[in-house]
Task: inverse folding
């Protein structure tokens, strides 16, 4: 009778099992487990999904107002989406922006007011997510937070307008005076700097406490780095993974939601880092 499981194969199995145990107890794996445990305890994974929902609810109204205010200024916002970090989701973002440009041509006062309110939902709930991460309980101040969300919407619009202008000028200037590789590197440098300022403003906004600007420089840099690494890694992953085999016609939507979820998680990692280590001025905003 043939042996199904010999002594040598059993020893080999034990050796592999021991190797797996050593791998699971290695320092990188233990560090990953600790980070995941911290994120889970802080409810970052749940909050990321919540922010994705409100991002989707706010995205089209925000793009509508962006087109309404700057649509005739000649600023090429679509040039921002040419960066490879938007591979895989570029078509969705272009569709949203072009739809908002079309809607802005026949705008009514009622539509403008209601869409502006809808555009603030993401930032309002991002501020609420900040209160959860900071373990801050506020009974009043909802109106002030909503008002600050209105202000932040316009700040973000100005930042995007500046980004579109700089990228448009940069592409012309860099392509004319720099080699192709350096021109592309310069484009990403401009994009990274403006993304850093976006992360900086978001870090200051979502905190229920007044923070020293220098205290959020490192968390903002961390958030920016995580955004770029995640976006680049995701674009590389999509070159090898075919979502259409699993999700069919809705594959583009699934990819977009997953992309948003990872970016929101990176943002909350930066907020959590700020909450743990940043220097507070000791008093509340509101």
Result:
């Amino acid at each position: 009778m043939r042996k199904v499981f010999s002594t040598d194969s059993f020893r080999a199995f034990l050796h592999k099992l021991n190797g797996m145990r050593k791998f699971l107890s290695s320092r990188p794996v233990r560090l990953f487990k600790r980070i995941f445990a911290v994120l889970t305890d802080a409810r970052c994974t749940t909050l990321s999904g919540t922010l994705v929902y409100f991002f989707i609810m706010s995205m089209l109204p925000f793009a509508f107002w962006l087109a309404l205010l700057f649509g005739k200024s000649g600023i090429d916002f679509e040039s921002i989406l040419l960066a490879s970090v938007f591979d895989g989701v570029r078509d969705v973002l272009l569709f949203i922006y072009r739809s908002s440009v079309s809607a802005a041509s026949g705008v009514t006062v009622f539509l403008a007011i209601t869409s502006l309110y809808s555009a603030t939902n993401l930032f309002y709930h991002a501020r609420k997510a900040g209160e959860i991460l900071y373990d801050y309980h506020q009974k009043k101040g909802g109106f002030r937070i909503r008002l600050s969300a209105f202000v932040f919407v316009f700040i973000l619009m100005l930042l995007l307008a500046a980004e579109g202008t700089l990228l448009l000028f940069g592409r012309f200037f860099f392509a004319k005076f720099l080699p192709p590789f350096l021109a592309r590197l310069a484009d990403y440098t401009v994009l990274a700097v403006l993304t850093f300022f976006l992360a900086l403003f978001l870090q200051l906004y979502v905190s229920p406490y007044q923070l020293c600007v220098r205290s959020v420089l490192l968390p903002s840099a961390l958030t920016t780095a995580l955004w770029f690494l995640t976006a680049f890694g995701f674009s590389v992953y999509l070159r090898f993974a075919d979502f259409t085999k699993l999700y069919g016609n809705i594959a583009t939507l699934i990819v977009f939601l997953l992309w948003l979820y990872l970016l929101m998680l990176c943002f909350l990692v930066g907020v959590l880092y700020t909450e743990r280590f940043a220097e507070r001025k000791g008093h509340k905003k509101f």
Observations:
- The mean pLDDT is 78.
